[in-house]
Every structure is written in C-alpha cells, then in structure tokens.
Amino acid sequence: MLLAIWLAFALFPIYWTVATAFKTPIDIYQGPKYVPFIDFHPTVMSWERLFGPQNFSFFKDFANSLLFGSMSALLAVLLGAFAAYGLAQYRYKFGFYKNDDIAYLLVSQRFMPPIVAVLAIYITYQKLSLLDSRLGMILAYTAFDLPLAIFLLRNFFEQIPVELEQAAAIDGYGKVERLLRVVFPLAAPGLAAAYMICFVFSWNDFLFALILTFDNATTLPIMITNLNTQMQPMWWLLSAVGIVVMVPPVIVAVFLDRYMQRQVLRGGVR
Amino acid sequence: MRPSKSTARPARNATKRLMLAPAFLFFAAFTIFPLIFTAYVSLSAWNIGGRHIFIGLANYRSILGDITYLLSLRNTVLFTLATTFIEYVLGFGIAYLVNGVARWQRPIRLAVLLPMLLTPIVVGFIWKMMLDPSFGPIDSVLRHLGLPRINWLSSAVPAFMGIVLADTWEWTPFMFLILFAGLRSLPTEPFESARVDGASPWRIFWDLTFPLMIPASAAAILLRSVESFKLFDIVYLITAGGPGVATSTVSLDAYFTGLRAGDLGSAAAMTIILLIIVIVVTMSFLQLVARFGQSKMRPLSSPKDLASSRANSRTQVHETR
Known about the structure:
The complex is a heterodimer. By secondary structure, chain A is mainly α. Chain A has helices at residues 2-20, 25-29, 45-51, 58-89, 99-107, 114-127, 134-159, 162-170, 175-186, 188-204, 207-212, 220-228, 235-267, and strands at residues 93-94, 97-98. By secondary structure, chain B is an all-alpha fold. Chain B has helices at 3-7, 10-41, 58-64, 67-100, 105-117, 120-131, 137-144, 156-184, 189-196, 201-212, 214-228, 233-238, 250-260, 264-293, 302-319, and strands at 44-46, 52-54. Chain B is globular and about 75 Å long. The chains are: A mainly alpha, B mainly alpha. Chains A and B meet through helix 1, helix 4, helix 5, helix 6 and helix 7 of A and helix 1, helix 2, helix 4, helix 5 and helix 6 of B.
C-alpha cells in the first residue's frame, strides 16, 4: 500500500510529461488535463514540429549528444579497462601508493564538485581554442567517466578466475592475446555495463555543456534550457524533447537491471 | 612472493605502467591540473577575457562578506541536510518494503529506480511543470482539496521546498539502490533465530536489521550528500536560484559570478571554499562512522583484503612463465 503510493508519486510526473507532449497549447493553458481522449485530444503537433523542417537545431544537438555519449564512453571504457586490468593483475607501488590507494585516488575525483574543475577547464579551453568544440567535449566527458569505468571494471576483472588465465598462458598465449581472447570476452558483460553507465553519465550532463559550449557543440540538455527560458515556454515541445532525452537512460536501466541482479544484489555494497 | 620481484623486470614494468598511463594522464589533465589552476585563479583578479593580476586572498575576503554567497552557502548546506535525511528515510523504507514483496519485484524495482536515471535537466523541467501555480497538476489537486494556492516558485520557502521535493523524487532511488543491495546481502541466520525466539518484526528491525545496515547506510549517506553539495541542474532550470537568492546554491552562484558576470577569480574562490567544506564534511563523517561502529563494521574496506589477496595470486601467473 505504502509502496503503491510511492510508485504513483514516482511515475506520475513521467506520465504527465508524456501526456503533455501530445497536447496542444490550448489544452495545456486551460489548466491541467489528465486523460487522453476524455480530457483532451492527443495530437502529434509537437512531434511534427520537432522532426519537421524548421527543427531549430534539434538534429544537431541530438547528434552531438549521441556523439559525445558514445565516444566518451568508448574511450573511458577502453582506457578504464586497461587501468582496471592493471590494478587487478599487477601490484603497483608509487611511493606510499599501492593498488587500492591508486584506485581510490582515481575514484576520489567524483568527490570533487565539477564546478571546481570546470572553471579552470573553461580558461584552459579558451587558450587552446577547444571551447565549443566536439573534441573538447569528448575529452572532458571521457575524463569524468574514467573513474567510474575503472571502479566498475576493476571489480569485474578481479572476479575472473586466475586459473583461466594461467591455462591460457600454458597454452602459449601471449600477454596481449590473453587480454583480448580470454580476459575481455569474459568481462564482456562488465564492459557493456560500464559502457552503458558511462554513456548515460555523459548523456545526462548539463554543467559541462552549459559552460563549455554555446553554438556548435551544444547538446540536448542545452536545447531544453534554451526553450525553457522563453517568455511562454512551449511545454508541449519541451516535453517531446524531454522524452527523446529520457529514452536512452530508460533503455539502459532495463538492461542494467539484469546486470544489477547478478552483480550488486549478490555482491552487496562494494 | 614480494611485489618488488616483479618490478625487477624492466619490460614487464613498462607494460604494467603503460596500462595505467592513459587514465593517469586524464586524471592529471582534468582533475589535478584544474584543481591547482582554480586555486591559482582564486588568488587573482581574473576577468573572463583573460586579463589577470595576482591579488592574494582579496577574493576570499570579498566573497565572505558577500550576502549572496553566504546565502548560497547556507542554502547548499540546508539542501544537503534536508534531502539526504528525507531520501535516506524514504529510501530505507522503500528498500524494506520492496525486499518483502514476493511477486512483481522486478518491475517494481525498475519503476522505483526510474527517476534516478532520467537526465537531471529533464527532471528539472518535469518539476517546473508539476509545480506551476496556474497549469500544474499539484496546484489543481490542492485546489480540489480546498487548500490555498501556493506560488511555489515565486516565494522563498515554497520554492525551497519545491526544489527539495524535486530532488527527493530524483534521488531517493539512489538511496534505495544501495540500501536494497545492503538488505539483500544481510546474513539470514540471525533473523531466523530471532523469529524462532518470537521477536516482533518491530524489534527485529531495530535490533537486527538497522544495526546490520549501518555500513550500507553510511555509504549511501556519504555518497548522496557529496552529490548533493554539487546541486546545480534542477535548480538552474526550476528557479535559477530565485526568487532573489532564496534557492541559489554555491555552484549556481559561482556559475553566475564567473561566466555571466565575468569575475572568474571570485567564482574560483567560491568553488574552492565549497571543495574544502566537502572534504571536511566527508572526513568528519568517516571519522564519526569509524568511531560509532568501532571495529564491528568495516564500511567499504572489506573488499580491500580480498582484492589484494587476489592481486597476490595473480602475480603467480607471471612467475610461472
């Protein structure tokens, strides 16, 4: 019962947004209307406008969001996999820093409010003319996804039985081959999960895009704020954009649920 | 087997270091360097065009006398306290309830987690619609109940509550996620024997579940409050810090000061103070947890031993070759 109340509270705002995306401006500004076909007649007006010819940069922002998310996640998972594998496989010692300390140092970045770094990155990008550039955004997102990827993957690599690798070594596989043929395939679910989580993190970002882009490299969240600051915000249109933005994280959530069931629920808090 | 043995071979040493190199490069370029650079900028009068002179601590002196900044700082702390507390209590409750559900657990879990995964700026927009005093559903429900209309976003206290509400909606699932995982990994034996002894569910919860959940709780509260100190997106969209500065946060104030007003020096000082607060809060929280739990609980540290023993056995792969 209590749970049902929470679920209603959790799901209603999402339902509301979906409903609004199919309303006409009149239906919105005549006060709240809840049920399609009874309260109001659903239209695809906002969708026509969104995908129509005068699409006011929607496609550009969408392409940017997709590009930044996919590329930064790819880089973060690739570089993160090397680091995570190294940390799981070798023993490091840099001064007082051993494996765990290195891992925690890298992950500690997430404790720093991003606003601290982003001002300095703004000035640096200004000097390097990386402001409002796609490369700059991909690099910045990669940097902020990396700790996450390392954190998730290290756990994964540690679970791969050493014996399998020993067997591969006895069979004469070289170092790189062992990594590519034995370790990465075994860690594939982990790599996929890390990729999806990194993608969503980049996709969901707002602060970096707000400060480091203004025209060429803007993303969908920036489009939403731009539409939102107009005198009479077009809720129907904003809701439609909002739904487009919400879709990838929701898909990822459904996929990850499986993974979580295995990883988080069995392993407990890491 | 000593770890230093394997470092004696230079070729392997190179591979080993190369594996970490890219990650470290990114870490240095996007974390260490910006941190030092921001600290330097905070000691300068730095205009957004790039002109700058060193002025020592003058920025700190001026922002600590600036009412807007002090209010933003107060708001940030209040937001963090309020949302972390509310979200923890709700998250624990929901985790407990979902854990007791036998059927449909998977879709329920997914529905509970959903808000957390949505893009924060969209969450901001959703709640701006929800809270709208003329066209929003919350207002119409209040009207139907015969309650007075609340101008959520144009007066200070309701605006603050509105932000807390939106944040609670968005991040309670995070608390749920960690606490649910914690509940699932609890040992079953003590619960069975308590039930055999005829303890009431209430007693079982307070005498067993809650104490056993302290490590998970500590982790959840720590992670959530650190995130909460960063609060920016939803406030930017819902109120942009208004009315006045009633809902401004440090991140917002630094953004407006640095990039809208062009005073990067003061903005940098604002963020450095925020960082120091986050570090102090984190450290004292960990101390508190360590003292409170003594040696019984080991928040986040138990996998360490496992990890190092694993690394130990992994080095064998190479020695055997």
